From TrEMBL:
InterPro entries named among the record's database cross-references: Plexin_repeat, PSI, Sema4F_C, Semap_dom, Semaphorin
Record keywords, A-Z: Glycoprotein, Membrane, Signal, Transmembrane, Transmembrane helix
GO cellular component, one term: plasma membrane
Predominant subcellular localization, coarse grouping: membrane
UniProt record, GO biological process: axon guidance; neural crest cell migration; positive regulation of cell migration; semaphorin-plexin signaling pathway
Full protein name: Semaphorin-4A-like isoform X1
Organism in which the protein naturally occurs: Solea senegalensis
Ranges of compositional bias, category Basic and acidic residues: 676-685, 776-790
GO terms assigned for molecular function: chemorepellent activity; semaphorin receptor binding
Comp. bias (Polar residues): 656-671, 817-829
Length: 829
């Protein structure tokens, strides 16, 4: 009773504290079908639910378990995936009829392939649900023919296609975790296909060995000669909470052959422990969703093997969120070699064992131990301690993305340091590529791999080929792990902080770091453009001379003719989703009385003699600044009174201005306190691309300087719906806001101060927010740069900062912007 109320209080308190999660935004986003990340697709009208993937050793053949079929796909070619062979394996009409007579939906009766593993050099072992009557078979991996009559699949494959299972073949023996009955309430971890003196083994029916588990994955660690299983189940040791779910790791030894009298044909080496994905004093992310094994770095001990898992929470305060935690093998081993809990059979309560230790549960080689020892092992299988994540904290956590699958890779950066790169699939169909920095996780990019949510998915990484396969209900998609050529300036290449990519000075291109002999410029940890690119670019400056582009030769920028008293809105594109837009005027300040900074980065003001002139839109990211657009606002020669009008540029000149606007809606920083326009994911991801696919008809999204006239007879409600209101209303709004704010602050200040202190303390200790670094750095740098800007008036500083982009055709001033091919810097296409 008491524990219960304490717990509820803790849950409530922690639930309140958890919103201080760091926001992790992918730096660039590639919407579905954009050419910047080329997806190769395989789909066929008669192939669906392609969800079990198995890659051949040489990476040239991808075996796919689908609905009623096993496929062998030829993935050795760069641009296409072709079908090499197909095995049709479907239940007969009679089987289907029986299945539906048992009350099952016809759609669930086909044979969904759920086990697909290499058995030996010539054969694959496959199991399917087969109309709720699972079967297994041997398949020749060359010809894809079934060699032997199908086996009974009970205990190897679930009956119900919606139940998760795991299977792994080691030395010709199949280790599985699945439910072994039609109703789905007899979960079992078992071994099959054992021969000779080795016998098939399964779990004893002892109370509590498994409690309604959901199997996630299994991993074989050769040096340990153990197979580890990962699953979630009901945590009966927490009997004060109803159905508290815990994530588990369990182990069995390959050498196990069962006991001689006690535990005959049963595991003698089974042990399980809780996996805790939890930062100190926070609600745990208790439900494991997926886990992948990262083998130790070359030369390191097996104990350094890491397991990266995705976890979600069973509580609604954390719904929609997910966290990644990593666990070290040595930590798992030490938990298994520690103390065990024991179940009191009368009260059904778990407690820490007090009686003397007769054997070491989980130890390999117990099969011919004494009956006494085996009875002890049978009762003591739940480790007392929990396995805590590496660093006792979350590897990363996301408040806005629910991840379902992951795969992990170690990548050697240019400085020979190794970085861990995670590929995370979101429920909504995006693949996030995330690098783990000392300061926390940084999401390099996101690629949309499918449009509609997919009920079943799988991921397979091929490290040697540098590709990832995503299996969904609709087919298989392949995408490269990196495409460095997308970053076409040194600055973009460095800001990406992608350990796969580095700037090659010789070829002046962003290249795959592992493919080049020469050293490349890269700064994964800090992403410092000036240091990293300057060292590389000096020769360029020396060659072309920094003063080549003089202020005098600067163009005046995009001309914006206005009538006095019109409301002008200038658009500013974002260089990336992590950049912050900033407006400047030569020789004058943008006072907040006259200028309104809108949420999408655009600037709005009323045209008066004082506000005519040049405007410069800068984008700042991680302390690096580049000019995105230059406007020259000038009074029209013959003023025409206009009502709400949109100034749209002719489509024939896809230059600066076209790009300048194409990215509206992607801004994330509100400089003023105007209500931010409603921001949806679609807006976030769709912008841009028109400008980059130049051969297509440019979607007329072009220049969009909206002009409003605030003449006497004008009516404020005439503004375009959805646009923020112009500055005419600004002062009133401000006044109200101030009054309300003051009242609010008075009322809540005491409470907030106390809570904020607590929250800050806690947030600081957490996964460090990488997004904070840029703004801190930019704050430090910006005044200097502004000074420089003012001095140079016409911004030739850019030629110094990113000389590579100076290769742009035409003027030096918009070089950083247009580049050689008129593309928006770093905008996904
Ligand atoms: C890589 O990016 C370039 C430039 O954006 C694009 O042309 C190319 O198709 C991409 N390649 C792949 C394999 O995605
Ligand atoms: C692989 O296993 C199958 C089935 O047991 C067997 O028929 C085949 O001969 C084996 N192949 C090799 C190369 O051992
Ligand atoms: C198979 O795919 C379809 C969508 O194509 C989906 O509705 C269904 O749930 C999937 N079945 C299973 C068993 O995953
Ligand atoms: C213990 O088991 C091994 C097989 O794993 C066997 O070779 C050995 O003889 C057994 N020892 C005893 C004392 O039975
Ligand atoms: C300009 O903006 C208006 C609304 O602000 C929008 O309806 C119109 O489509 C935009 N024009 C272009 C070319 O983007
Ligand atoms: C403003 O315009 C709306 C329609 O656009 C109209 O209903 C309203 O009466 C106008 N108000 C004034 C003061 O002109």
């Amino acid at each position: 009773m008491e524990t219960h109320s304490v717990l509820s209080f803790t849950v409530a308190l922690l639930g309140f504290l958890s919103p201080c999660l760091t926001r992790l935004t992918p730096r660039v986003s590639f919407p579905f079908g954009s050419p910047g990340r080329h997806l190769t697709r395989f789909s066929s009208y008669d192939v669906s639910n392609t969800t079990t993937l198995l890659l051949s050793e040489d990476g040239d053949v991808l075996y796919v378990g689908a609905r009623d079929a096993v496929l062998a796909l030829d993935v050795g070619h760069k641009d296409v995936i072709t079908l090499r062979n197909k095995l049709d394996w479907r239940p007969s009409d009679k089987d289907l009829e029986q299945c539906s007579m048992k009350g099952k939906e016809m759609a669930d009766c086909p044979n969904f392939i759920r086990v697909l593993q290499f058995l030996n050099a010539s054969h694959i072992y496959a199991c399917g649900t087969f109309a709720f009557s699972p079967r297994c078979t041997y398949v020749n991996s060359e010809t894809l023919t079934m060699s032997i009559r199908p086996d009974e699949g009970r205990g190897r494959c679930p009956y119900d296609p919606y139940q998760r299972n795991t299977a792994i073949i080691v030395d010709g023996e199949l280790y599985t975790g699945t439910v072994a009955d039609y109703r789905g309430n007899r979960p079992v971890i078992s071994r099959h296909l054992s021969e000779g003196r080795r016998v098939d083994l399964k779990l004893d029916d002892t109370l509590g060995w498994l409690e309604d588990p959901t199997f996630i994955s299994s991993s074989f660690i050769p040096d340990e000669e153990k197979v580890y299983f990962f699953f979630s189940e009901v945590g009966r040791e927490y009997d004060f909470i109803d159905k508290f779910i815990v994530s588990r790791v369990s182990q069995i030894c390959m050498s196990d052959v069962g006991g001689q009298r006690t535990l005959q044909r049963r595991w003698t080496t089974f042990a399980k422990a809780q996996l805790l994905c939890q930062a100190d004093n926070e609600l745990p992310y208790n439900v494991i969703q997926d886990i992948d094994t990262l083998p130790p770095a070359e030369g390191a001990s097996t104990d350094e093997t890491l397991f990266y898992g995705i976890f979600t929470s069973q509580w609604s305060v954390n719904s929609g969120r997910s966290a990644v935690c990593s666990f070290r093998l040595s930590d798992i081993k030490s938990v298994f070699s520690g103390n065990y809990k024991v179940l009191n059979r009368d009260t059904l309560q778990w407690s820490t064992r007090v009686q003397e230790k007769v054997a070491n549960p989980g130890e390999c080689g117990l099969h011919n131990a004494s009956d006494n020892a085996l009875r002890f092992v049978k009762e003591n299988f739940l480790a007392d301690d929990s396995v805590r994540p590496v660093g006792r904290s979350l590897t990363m956590a996301s408040a806005e993305h629910k991840y379902s699958h992951l795969t992990v890779q170690r990548v050697q950066a240019a400085n020979n340091r190794e970085y861990t790169v995670l590929f995370l699939l979101t429920e909504t169909g995006y693949l996030h590529k995330s690098v783990l920095l000392q300061s926390g996780a940084h999401i390099i990019e996101e690629v949309q791999v499918f449009e509609r949510p997919q009920p079943v998915k799988s991921l397979k990484l091929s490290v040697p080929k540098g590709v990832i396969y995503v299996g969904t209900s609709e087919g298989v998609v392949r995408l490269p792990t990196a495409n460095c050529s997308f970053y076409w300036t040194c600055a973009q290449c460095v800001l990406a902080r992608d350990p796969f990519c580095g700037w090659d000075t010789a070829s002046r291109a962003c290249v795959e770091a592992s493919n080049t002999q020469t050293s490349v410029a890269q700064d994964i940890e800090r992403g410092n453009v000036e240091e990293t690119c300057n060292t590389v670019t000096l020769t360029h400056i020396a060659r072309f001379g920094p003063n080549k582009m003089s202020a005098a030769s600067c163009p005046t920028g995009e001309l914006v003719p206005v009538a006095l008293n019109e409301v002008v809105r200038l658009q500013c594109p974002a260089a990336s989703k992590l950049s912050r837009q900033l407006w400047e005027r030569p020789n004058s300040r943008l006072s907040s009385d006259l200028y309104l900074h809108l949420g999408d980065g655009s600037l709005s003001f009323v045209a008066t003699p004082a506000t005519l002139g040049h405007y410069l839109c800068l984008s700042t990211e991680n302390g690096y600044q580049q000019t995105m657009a230059i406007y020259h606002v000038r009074q029209k020669s013959s003023p025409v009174v206009q009502t709400t009008s949109s100034y749209t540029r002719p489509r024939t000149r896809p230059t600066l201005a076209t790009q300048a606007v194409s990215r509206s809606g992607s801004g994330q920083h509100t400089t003023g306190f105007w209500p931010e326009p409603k921001e949806t994911r679609r807006q976030d991801t769709e912008p841009t691309q028109s400008t980059r696919d130049t051969q297509g008809v440019p979607r007329q999204r072009g220049k969009n300087v909206t002009l409003w006239t605030l003449g006497s007879g004008q009516n404020e409600s005439g503004f375009v719906e959805g646009e923020p209101l112009p500055s005419a209303r600004y002062p009133c709004y401000l006044k109200e806001l101030v009054v309300v704010s003051v009242l609010l602050v008075l009322c809540l200040s005491l409470l907030i101060t106390v809570l904020m202190y607590v929250i800050r303390q806690r947030c600081r200790r957490r996964t460090a927010p990488h997004a904070v670094t840029p703004s801190r750095e930019s704050d430090r740098r910006t005044p200097l740069e502004q000074e420089a800007l003012r001095r140079n008036q016409c911004l030739n500083k850019r030629t110094g900062l990113s000389p590579h982009s100076g290769q742009a055709g035409g003027s030096g001033c918009n070089g950083a912007l247009t580049g050689s091919n008129g593309h928006l810097p770093n905008t996904p296409i």
